[in-house]
Write a structure and sequence with these properties.
Elements: E1 2-6, H1 13-22, E2 26-30, H2 37-41, E3 46-50, H3 56-66, E4 71-75, H4 80-93
Parallel strand pairs: 1-2, 1-3, 3-4
């Protein structure tokens, strides 16, 4: 399963990667908006938006590029526990 995380804290990137690795997910993490952000997203299976730490422009760009087959989850909290719960629910359903 491929996962794209938009938002979150810079210091938590290693923790996010560790959690995704535990659930056997490939992950891309974007905490800041880069110049070609929309093109870097690709077509993931799951898009996680940590809404408390991301700009509206970045959310809009991510939603436009995600595609129709992508599951989108918005979460206000960008903690380890929040990501763990999201992946637990998404990975165990399939």
């Amino acid at each position: 399963m491929s996962v794209v995380i938009v938002g979150g804290h810079d210091r938590m990137v290693a923790q996010y990667k560790k959690i995704c690795k535990f659930y056997k997910c490939k992950v891309k993490i974007f905490t800041h908006m880069s110049a070609d952000f929309g093109k870097q997203i690709g077509c993931p299976d799951l898009l996680v938006l940590f809404t408390s730490t991301v700009s509206h422009k970045m959310v809009k760009s991510a939603l436009e590029e995600a595609g129709d087959k992508t599951d989108i989850i918005r979460c206000h909290t960008s903690s380890k526990n929040a990501l763990t719960e999201i992946l637990k629910n998404c990975c165990c359903e399939k």
